[in-house]
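Intended use. Records such as the ABC importer, periplasmic component entry shown here are meant for training and evaluating sequence-to-structure methods. They are not intended to support clinical decisions.
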Amino acid sequence: MRKINYILVGLLLGAILLSCGEKASKNDERLKTATWESIASEARGTTVNFMMWQGSTAINDYINNYVVPTVKEKYDIDLQISGGQGPEIVQLVMGEKQADREEGQVDMVWINGETFFQLRKINGLWGPFVEQLPNSALINFEDRFISTDFQQPINGMEAPWSINQFAIVYDYKKVPNPPKSIPELENFIKEHPGTFTISNDFTGMTLLKSLLAELGGSPNALNGPFDEKKYKELSEKLWKFINDNKRYFWKEGRTFPKEQSKMNQLYANGELLIAYGFSEGGIEDKVLNGLYPKTTKGYAWENGTIRNSNYLGILYNSPQKAGAMQVINFLLSPEAQFKKADANGMDSNTVLAMDKLELEWKDKFLEARKRQYGPILEELEANAIAEPAPEYMIRLYEDFRKKVIEN
């Protein structure tokens, strides 16, 4: 999901100060202790609205052509999809709180990181609900990359959906020895001017977090609560590195792509020699669809790249919480997770623990066709670092605009 932009802190603080006299859409507290049979019965025949990022053909195909018809057939649930990611979701919730809407437009959302942080700040999520889902028993919540989201314990307020790691993308025929550290990157862009850039989006800011960690001296440099002093010290070094070298960037650093998809296209047509992204670089489907050359590979930064999970949440004023719980439980089922992991399709790493699956499903996952081109999650494991606190991402967005784009 890659995929979420920042919300202005002022807007967030304004929402936090809204009246505390919020009303639930209805008394759904009982669902937190109800039997699954009663939840499933209440869910049947409902219409559930799901707001999610729609920037991937493979993801849209999985949702629209598999999930939507399957939940209709299995549970008589009409799943309606609407486009929206971090900013739109938070703004929607803020607006509905201001209007005191007891029943909202959206039931469930695809989120992580700073969006989870912001929604929790304004009491925009309903829960905890995850332990009520039967399929949550198949997840290893002792995995720190699953149980914490940007250093925040999820505490049952969002359900893990996928896990992935950030990777650098390159063509090994054009770049036999790609850079794996900041000094190597500096040498690379000077030797190959115009072939590197930073996208001004969630993906680009994630790269900057990996660079911040390297400047901090270790993979764990950003662990723990947000540290203002540490951020200022490390970010000053980061902005200096970028501004000292941005004349060697794509378009001489006068402009930056606003979306990862634009950067992917620039890599595909040869303008960029290095790209990057989540899902271990997101290489497989782009090679299979002919966008990337078959000589594309992915790797992790020497100091490490971010590994994280993305999640499904239920909004505080969802009118169909039982229906949302049923849909989310299905999305965590071995059937749905196996379909989502198809290397020819969505190519998404499962959050299910193999040792918790029945033998039939364990064998299916282990015998499934593997990626031909992109690295698998296990290959990057030694270089995985945890997402830092959400304030780092929020500050990076703001300062990248002020100190780099507008400088």
